[in-house]
Amino acid sequence: MSASRRKPDRSSSPWPQFPIWGPAERTQLLETLQSGRWWYGPKVHRFEEAFARFQGARYGITVNTGSAGLEVALLASGIKAGDEVIIPPYTFVATATAVVCVNAVPVFADIRPDTLCLDPTDVQRKITRRTRAIIPVHLAGHVADMDRLNRIARKHGLFVLEDACHAWGSQWKGKGTGALGDAGVFSFQVSKNINSAEGGIILTDDEQLAQRCTSLIHCGRVAGGAWYQHERLGSNLRLTEFQAAILLAQLTRLERQTLRRQANAAILDEHLSQIPGLKVVPNDPRMDRRSYHLYVFRIESRRFGLSRDELVKALVGEGIPVSPGYPSPLYRLGLFESVGRRSPRLEPFAAAEADYANTSCPVCEQVCQDAIFLPHTALLAPARRMMQIVRAVRRAAGAQTT
Fold it and tell me: CATH assignment of 254-326+364-397?
């Protein structure tokens, strides 16, 4: 029977729901409730130490969101008004708005077509006398080329801040993300592989940078200072004990879940890569582990026979929880598109003087038209469910199933 006439093989069981929780979360939360220590105390600091150790960093500083973590790390690094920070345009908007919110200027460099991460060659082209930092994004858990990016940064004296908000557990040459540059930031927002509804953490090996970050999130207080002694302009960006309690429990299963996602992604890689018109995002041999916050694959519509949106619609119709990727490069969002031309949307920030009208990152623009996202939750399903996805893709292509 042809694929076009075969009935979809919908599974009677739903895809895994997230977040996953159990007795560990209940125990940690009840301990916190009954202790009366609800605010920025021992569980917060235990989690900071545990997560930093898990990623191979010396210091961890929790924050109330990953977005705030990016801002704090940039401020702590000494970024000043008008400084340029190179970022990729294929990422969540917070990577760019964090730069704007510290009064610096985002400069967009293109991504690589094989990794969907920042392209070091284009980064080199975008460096000017005003460049002070690079923010590589480990998109979907795939680690950016940190060897080349760190070499470029050392050559030009630039701060490297990893946006690791998709990369809890990813490793590069034996070391965890967030510990590969000068600092790294993770998010624990509700959609993330480890989450406490909201929250984040900054990792670094630099003790002085860690102290500055702690001061910035703790109202400008400093270690050893009096309670009402405020040494720098800071804010209240602290994590609560309840969030830390949940995260301590979630951390106990993160490695096991990561390995399961990785194994299921390997099944998809093997089979989807054999379908004409589909491209998977391959592993880099320098990556020891990959978090797979998303499983991303790309479609070449002419070869496949359907557009990206048609394939997404067909898969969703079979119960496969896919979605299109980011719909446009960040520089095409209304926030940036008319800056410097018609509408001063970024005033009073320094970025209001920039002009993104002529910004072009061709690889990113193409990926925005052809990428498909499968959420990390689906990769926690039994391995046999991966073949359900493969068969659905084959049917959509009109191929014979096996």
Answer: 3.90.1150.10
Residues ≥6 apart with Cβ < 8 Å to 277: 299, 300, 301, 302, 303, 304, 305, 397
**Whether pLDDT at 400 is above 90:** no
Q: What is the DSSP string of 68-134?
A: HHHHHHHHHHT--TT-EEEE-SSS-THHHHHHHHTT-EEEE--B-TTT-SB-HHHHHHH--TTEEEE
User: Which of 80, 192, 279, 313 is the catalytic position?
Assistant: 192
Q: Give the pLDDT band (50/70/90) at residue 76.
A: very high
In the numeric block, which tokens belong to residue 57? Answer: 């960093």
192 is an active site residue: yes
**Domain boundary assignment for the chain:** 23-250, 254-326+364-397
Out of 3.40.640.10, 3.40.630.10, 1.10.10.10, 3.10.450.50, which CATH number does the structure's domain 23-250 have?
A: 3.40.640.10
Rg (CA), the chain: 22
Q: pTM score, two decimals?
A: 0.94
